[in-house]
Amino acid sequence: MGKAPPRDPGQFYGGNGPTMRAGDTALRVAAAVLIAREAGRRSLAAAVALARGAGRPFEPAADRLVIAPPDIRTADPTVADDILAGRFIFSGQMVETFGQSPFVAPPVSAEWERVLHGFGWLRHLRAAGGPEVHDEARALIEAWLRQGLRNPVAWEPDVAGRRLISFLAQSPMLLDGCSAAFYRRFMAVIGLHARRLRNAFERVPPGLGRLRIAVALVAVAVAVDSFRPRVKAAMKRLDDELARQIFPDGGHVGRNPAAILDILVDLLPLRQAHAARGIPVSSGVMNAIDRMMHLLRFFRHGDGALALFNGAGVTPVSLVASVLVHDDALGRPPGNAPYSGYQRLEADRTVVIVDCGRPPPPDYARDAHAGPLAFEFSSGRNRFVVNCGAPPRTGDPWRDIARRTAAHSTVTVADAIAGRFADGVLERMAGRVLIAGAQRVEIDRQEHEGAVAVIARHDAWLVPFGLIHERTLRLAPAGDRLDGRDRLIEEGPRRSGHAPFAIRFHLHPSIQATPLEGGPIMLAAPDGETWEFHVDGPAASVEDSVYLADPHGARRSLQLVVTGRAPAEIRWTFLRAAEPHGARRRT
């Protein structure tokens, strides 16, 4: 299977599809409300920041670090070798400095520059170890103080929050054997970060960046001796943010499975730092960690990677494993995440995960995907049906394409998008948020004699086409058969006019698809496991697709496509035909 991405993404995912004129008035009203709310939030945040600054004319200096919150992210000493050689490889892009400071080198992309100034890569230097490496790490900090301190990118709140967390976590390396002058400069910059982030907090848009800053402010209050009186206020800020962003079932309000991993990677070290200092951790943080651990396992496939929904992309499998080491829960993950809007069907080693939710609130929908009732299906370590996922770089041109309905394993009607993405003034104010989509989603989960079935329907196609999409998925008790049914049902005064539809099943790049004589399509994994795909009605075709959740960039893949005209009812089945090589056959 080649790794080069297709040249024209439109050939696989269609255009924007027909414009959804019906309901435009409601959309304009929603957009106006969002614009007004965003403008009001910015004005209020500025006033709050000004008032807080006026109330703190004299602040204690950051005197000394008494603890370093651990960094549980995986580290690679070979990355340190590249950095020491002047090769800075971030987000799949490299800048070679040829002995100069990386902070004066022209950035290859905005994403690369943000990673550089976030300093998360310090952990690789710490993993390499040795006095020479520690000296180089301090030299890079000194270079940033001279050449990067005033860079606007460096003080984007999310970047600065990442940097503060990294500086604290890697302080044992940075301060081991350092000079008194370096220690003073380092502590001064810690204090500068704490002050700036505290004053900027109210101006930060809702989302993961805001939550990360709340974590950073708690971490610095716990780690710096003179900031200990701030722990209570910082923890209250973090608790409030967790209450806003984490659902009772442990999912994130943005509905991105990878967001759970990002948050846990920051929260778990915070819990350890509190314990080490004898400071009680709030019940809000402890409960959030417990709930998110459940959902992390919920979204995990047999290969250790997370499901690709709503902005999830490349999964560092080793990082997932590192986080789950801290999980005390036993047994299988839950099958139902009702607040997050997902269902999980599991039998033996077969896993099916389905998106049965509505779009996130606009404040958290900047990366949301329009893929209602999309599903993924894996068997053991083999992922068969996937969504295309999101590329790792924010500026990647594929990122917008990946959000379209056709990039998901679900039903599309007339090549349209099941929703609408903001443009014009709203996009400039709030980003390219998903402002329309399924508003009514109904779910019925049934479990009987070991078999699990989910019946779900959504109304994203109701306004433009007068159609309701209903999807039924049933997993057999032995995990060797997945039956599906997709129905496009006419509802309301508007009729579909026999609109064309397509049911797409995107395949993982490792899966080969071979049509067999008589109708079924054989799906083969590298380890010899095979499944047959059968469809009752129109024949399925094998077409090109693209897989975007790969660390090396977009990869060619395949998709199974069933087409027809609405209204319609299509039944299909995945049936295991052969076990992996060396596996014991069940009796």
Automatic annotation (TrEMBL):
Annotated InterPro entries: Chondroitin_lyas (IPR008929), Hepar_II_III_C (IPR012480)
Cellular location(s): Cell envelope
Gene3D superfamilies: 2.70.98.70, Chondroitin AC/alginate lyase
Main localization, broad class: other
One Pfam family matching this protein: Hepar_II_III_C
Domain Heparinase II/III-like C-terminal: 331-573
GO molecular function per UniProt: lyase activity
GO cellular component annotations of the record: cell envelope
Superkingdom per UniProt: Bacteria
Name of protein: Heparinase II/III family protein
Biological source species: Prosthecodimorpha staleyi
